[in-house]
Amino acid sequence: MNETIEVALGERSYPILIGTDLIGDPACYSPYIAGAQVLIVTNETVAPLYLERVRQALAGRRIETVVLPDGEQYKTLDVVGRVFDSLLAQRFARDCTLIALGGGVVGDMAGFAAACYQRGVSFIQVPTTLLAQVDSSVGGKTGVNHPLGKNMIGAFHQPRAVIADTATLDTLPDRELSAGLAEVIKYGLIRDAGFFAWLEAEMAALRAREPTALAAAIARSCRCKAEIVAADEREAGQRALLNLGHTFGHAIETGAGYGRWLHGEAVGAGMCLAADLSRRLGWLTSTDLAHACALIAAAGLPVAPPGDIATERFLELMAVDKKVQSGQLRLVLLKAIGEATITADFDPAALRATLDEGQPR
Ligand SMILES: NC(=O)c1ccc[n+]([C@@H]2O[C@H](COP(=O)([O-])OP(=O)(O)OC[C@H]3O[C@@H](n4cnc5c(N)ncnc54)[C@H](O)[C@@H]3O)[C@@H](O)[C@H]2O)c1
Ligand SMILES: O=C(O)C(=O)C[C@@H](O)[C@H](O)[C@H](O)COP(=O)(O)O
Ligand SMILES: [Zn+2]
Fold it and tell me: What is the pTM of this model?
């Protein structure tokens, strides 16, 4: 069953269309494309799978394509430059539209190119991974990595529409499905204990790609993200809760070398570390900690960081975080399953103990 969820941002409001067989449907795109020039940004894995269907849905317009290399290690300023090269070489004007066809890496880069080209042009997100359908395609965070820090160069730029065709998940590798489940579990942990309990009951169905369960998880995740983004578009307050596990996770991704740990895997382990620290501070019960880590493990995700990032190095990497204020690290921590808070008020010794012990208990 198809469903539409609105991201309510005044004149920048947009729909998230969720359903099957949407990417080849011209009616999904037409209302959101003003000019005749369209640039599809995709990658070398997704292009052979889905590019032709998108091209056909856009017939009648001038369509160009940029096919980027595949991988987190290519989410760089240098590679995004190829999108600008193409836009300029083809003389694309301000009324052009970019289409991001792929996972979160393509979405973040195409969105960033759209934010910058001629100081901002339209773009549409066509997410083809679970992670992108439940998280990265929604909310307008775009950008690239720097060797010294994850997502450190970017812009807020909202898409005109998100077209999430759940049938594209049929070709997604199991490891990537698990990575997407990390961000799904995140919504349960930060603000929806009922969803968390539902995920505990449905995790086997989700990993078996049961279509009804997957569609329900995607829609509930998007509703949750749409509400948070509508209330706090630029992360002045509660949007930071969407960063649960990410200060640890981004440190893992940067420390391990981009692409070695998937973003969702690093966030899975990062959420266990955040839960472990919350328990050490006396905010989270041992039972809730055990439930959180058990669900993350059941999703096929790691519950501990790689063994080769020493605590000092981990702390250095964690200090490169957009939530740092006046030199002080702020972390998203848990008070209960379904209740999170952002705080700088934690005992640094407890953080060290969490990192020293690595394996949450
Ligand atoms: N902007 C945001 O709000 C936000 C939110 C979460 C994550 N992110 C970013 O998103 C990125 C991770 O996104 P991701 O997990 O989608 O990774 P990804 O974009 O690297 O995609 C994962 C892999 O799946 C392949 N793929 C994509 N669709 C496929 C399909 N339908 N069938 C087969 N293979 C397919 C890709 O080519 C890639 O190899 C990270 O860079 C992360 O920082 C951004
Ligand atoms: O949309 C948000 O806000 C998020 O924090 C979603 C995260 O899952 C995502 O990984 C995001 O890219 C992290 O943003 P950052 O500002 O910490 O780089
Ligand atoms: Zn994330």
Answer: 0.98
